[in-house]
Amino acid sequence: MSSDGNGLGKVEVRLKWDPSPWNQPPHHLDIIATTYSADAPYGRPVYVVHFDSRSPDGTINMSRHSQTGQGFGYVEVMTLELDRLASSFARVVVGVAIHQNSGLKTFGDISNAGVLVVEGYKELLQDDFAQVSESTAATVAEFTRHATGGWEFHRMVRGFDSDPVVFTAVMGNAPQP
C-alpha cells in the first residue's frame, strides 16, 4: 500500500524475460491492465489495455513492447497515470500473460522472467513469478482508489491457467477463499 497521503500518481510496470533458445519458437509475454468502475469494482472491465491498445483517455499505455524478450533489462513497459484517471474508476488490475501460440508454456518454462512496479524511483513490487511457476498468466498488482480520491497499491500475485483473452475477463475477479 502507498504511504503517501495523496496516493499514487504515475506508475510503471516493467517486464523482462530471456529469449527462447535459438531452435525454439519465441516466448511472448504481455502486460495487461483492466479498469473497473466505482459502480462495479469486481464486475466486467470497463476497458482492457495491452500491447496493441491504450486507454481511451491516454492514461494507461504501453511505452515499450517485446514479442521475444530480446534486449537488455526490462523489455516491456506499461505506464499508468492513476492521478489522471476519471473519478468513475475505482480499481485497476495489472497482470502478465504468456501467449500460447506454439504450445503450452508456463512461467516455469520462461527463464529470468520478472516484473517490477515503480512510482518514480520508489519500488512498489519486484517479483520473479516463482510462486506462480505452473501458471500461464498472473495478476501482479491491484490499484484501488481510496475515499479521498488518491490511489493505493496492493501486491496481488495470483496465478491463472488461461490464454490472454480469457485472462482479461477473469483477472479482476474477487479472490476465492
Distance between the termini: 21 Å
Query: Shape, please?
Result: globular
Secondary-structure element pattern, one letter each? EEEEEEEEEEH
Most strands sheet: 5 strands, antiparallel
**Strand share of the residues?**
35-45%
Stretches with pLDDT under 50, minimum 5 residues: none
> Structural class of the secondary structure composition?
mainly beta
The helix count comes to 1
Describe this structure in words.
- This protein starts with 9 loop residues before the first strand and ends in a 7-residue tail after the last helix.
- It has one helix at residues 164-170, and strands at residues 10-16, 29-37, 47-49, 60-64, 76-81, 89-98, 114-119, 122-127, 137-145, 151-160.
- The longest helix has 7 residues, at 164-170.
- The chain is mainly beta and 177 residues long.
What topology emerges from the helices and strands here?
Layout: E1 10-16, E2 29-37, E3 47-49, E4 60-64, E5 76-81, E6 89-98, E7 114-119, E8 122-127, E9 137-145, E10 151-160, H1 164-170
Antiparallel strand pairs: 1-5, 1-7, 2-3, 2-6, 4-5, 6-9, 7-8, 9-10
